[in-house]
Amino acid sequence: MPILDDRNFEFFSHSPDQTRRLGIHLGGYLRPGDVIALEGNLGSGKTTLVQGIAQGWGVLDPVSSPTYVIVNEYRRADAQRLFHIDAYRLEGTFDAEILDFDRMLAQGPVVIEWAERIREVLPGELLRIRLDYTGIGHRAMMLNPEGKHFVALVENLRRKLYGDF
């Protein structure tokens, strides 16, 4: 985990609804080709955050964890897609490469749960979000942007949630 600096954004959620709302705001900023890498233990709120991201992106489909199918593809009214990958069952680079990442990135944003398992194939620019369980319903999230686009995205998200300071 990188040392906290002014580019990073720490957010504390006090309920699943608050986690979803953060995701809704984040999803509204995403564009095709964006990669959101989620890291955290079982029960840390990754899927709940993805539900919000999908809602903010404008998906028409219900969102569930793709644990057994590896990739869920959600559609939006304009035919763009949001891809939701669960890398928990992937065994590294080879398994990740067969997912056809380039096709996904051309059609929409990609959100990856357990992203640390396929770190070698992730692009250099992405938004890494670490989620930690801190109590019943409570989660700590650290958003670490990598690349100018994601630094700006996190700054816009911070302003939207807290205003200028």
Number of separate domains: 1
**Range of strand content:** 25-35%
The chain-level structural class is: alpha/beta
Low-confidence stretches: none
Helix content: 25-40%
Order of helices and strands: EHEHEEHHEEEH
**Could you give a short account of the major beta sheet?**
7 strands, mixed
The largest beta-sheet arranges its strands as 1-7-6-2-5-4-3
Tally of DSSP β-strands = 7
Radius of gyration: 15 Å
Give the terminus-to-terminus CA distance. Answer: 25 Å
In one word, what is the shape? globular
| Highest CATH level, the class | Alpha Beta
Characterise this structure.
The structure is a single chain. The chain has 165 residues and is an alpha/beta fold. The chain has one domain: P-loop containing nucleotide triphosphate hydrolases (Rossmann fold). It contains five helices and seven strands, in the order E-H-E-H-E-E-H-H-E-E-E-H. It has helices at residues 16-27, 46-57, 93-97, 101-107, 148-162, and strands spanning 9-13, 35-39, 71-75, 81-86, 110-113, 126-135, 138-146. A hairpin with a 2-residue loop joins strand 6 (126-135) and strand 7. Helix 1 crosses helix 2. The longest helix has 15 residues, at 148-162. It is globular. 41% of the residues are buried. The model has no long low-confidence stretch (mean pLDDT 87).
